[in-house]
Amino acid sequence: MAEADIKPKSIHSAKKWSDHVENLYRFQKAGYRDEVEYKQVKQVDTVECWPETGFVKKLQRRDNTFYYYDKQRECEDKEVHKVKVYVY
Question: Other C-beta atoms within 10 Å of 85: how many?
Answer without folding.
Answer: 17
